[in-house]
Design brief:
The protein has helices spanning 8-13, 16-19; strands at 5-6, 25-26, 40-41, 46-48, 56-61, 68-73, 79-83, 94-96, 99-101, 108-110, 116-118, 130-133, 136-139. The N and C termini lie far apart (43 Å). The relative contact order is 0.18. It is globular, with a radius of gyration of 16 Å. Helix content is 7%, strand content 33%. By secondary structure, it is mainly β. It has a single domain (40-139), classed as Rieske [2Fe-2S] iron-sulphur domain (Rieske Iron-sulfur Protein, 3-layer Sandwich), CATH 2.102.10.10. The strands form four sheets. A four-stranded mixed sheet has the order 3-5-6-7, with no helix packed on it. A four-stranded antiparallel sheet has the order 8-9-10-11, with no helix packed on it. The protein has a three-stranded antiparallel sheet with strand order 4-13-12, with no helix packed on it. It is built from two helices and 13 strands, in the order βααββββββββββββ. It binds FE2/S2 (inorganic) cluster (FES).
Length: 141
């Protein structure tokens, strides 16, 4: 049986004795997402629009706090952003086709809408404002 794991972020917040209780194990780095699918890296906080395929979803590392954002692009400049972090306990998600998978406790999200497909997460991925400026996509802060 696979043991549940704590995200590294959550494990750092718990006293050492609590992390060892209940058979919880700290997640290895590859368990925190992006173990097999590297997110697109944004240089200077932006990615070229041409690197974000139309009618598809792309994980992007924008840097800074909570860097991972799922970009969902229709055609042209029709583009939306969603948090790349699980709404259950905040683990970074990894993309597997049209789904985002949480390596910590198994939640899955629709990579085109942010909706929960499988719990324990119960809340959709929050939207992250993004903007197209010329031929670049950046977070709208
Ligand atoms: S953090 Fe628990 S399912 Fe994602």
């Amino acid at each position: 049986m696979e043991r549940p794991c704590l995200s590294r972020r959550l494990a750092l917040l718990l006293p050492a004795s609590a992390a060892g209780l209940g058979g919880l194990a700290a997640c290895a780095p590859e368990d925190e997402g992006f173990g097999t699918a590297e997110p697109l890296r944004a240089d200077d906080g932006a990615v070229p629009l041409e690197d974000v395929p139309e009618n598809a979803s792309t994980l992007v590392n924008f840097g800074g706090d909570q860097p991972f954002v799922l970009l969902v692009r229709g055609t042209g400049e029709d583009i939306a952003g969603y948090s790349g972090y699980c709404t259950h306990n905040g683990c970074a998600l990894s993309q597997a086709g049209t789904e985002l998978d949480c390596p910590c406790h198994g939640s899955r999200f629709d990579a085109t809408t942010g909706e929960v497909l499988v719990g324990p997460a119960t809340r959709h991925l929050p939207e992250v404002p993004v903007v197209v400026e010329g031929d670049l996509v950046r977070r709208d802060v």
